[in-house]
Amino acid sequence: MNLKQSWRNQLWPLRIMRIWLGVTWIYAGFDKASDPGFLKAGSSTFIGTQLSAFSVNSPIGLIFNKLIENSTQVGIFIMLAEFSIGAATLLWIAPTWAAFGGFAMSLTLWLASTWNVKPYFLASNSAYTILWLSYFLFLYGSRRRSKVSLDRRGFIRGSTVAAIAIAGAGLGRVFPKSVPGASSGPKNIIKDAVVKVGQTHNFVSKAGTPAVLFRTKNGIFAYSAVCTHQGCTVQFNSAAENLQCPCHGAVFDPFNEAKVVTGPTNTALPKIKVATEGAWIVEA
Known about the structure:
Elements: H1 3-9, H2 12-33, H3 47-57, H4 61-67, H5 71-91, H6 95-113, H7 124-141, H8 152-174, E1 187-191, E2 200-204, E3 210-216, E4 219-224, E5 235-237, E6 242-244, E7 251-253, E8 259-262, E9 271-272, E10 274-277, E11 280-283
Antiparallel strand pairs: 1-11, 2-3, 3-4, 4-9, 5-6, 6-7, 7-8, 10-11
């Protein structure tokens, strides 16, 4: 079935669903491609930083812990996959497989970033999961479903999707967007009385990334727990009194501005501004 026939033969409800899903996935890919920090370690929007946050809050956090070591490659794959799924859906190129890819991606994002959103219907990824699943089941169960062809025409169509994905990613780098900063208002972290001198507390920063709070006899301070090498989440070793990265062995001294003790990175952990307001310790 060619492109024109695919649109003509579909019912209007399916055309609307197809347009919405295809355009949204292309936009999602472009949003990542045009984000200067998406593939830049240390950025608040770095894919590794996002994976670190997912590993803390997601029911499948162990999977994300494994992916963090290859954050940049994961980010490139996600970006190109979104372009490819969107383009294949609109152009009717292996549409059944594209729909399944959209379902798998939406389900993963639901489990990763919005699993804890309550009530559940406020999480957009849950709605996209059902939309893609419904579209996939219709295509799979209908006579109009397409098979991946290895002939010359199939190769050209597949190459077209790949070219669109690469071109879209390149276009996003040429026209970068400005990235808004985190919320300026204070965020409650924990009741002040709960954290005693000599204790630490792990929390999620306003940027949505893992962070760690310290209390000493001199006061409170906090750092990002995202390693400045590849975005893994560092852990406090109370015996050694340092922050250690489980992925590549970087060590930071939290009692000396979180400076690097052992590489492979040379960049200290970013400091997070915290203060005491009333009964709470807050992120300023």
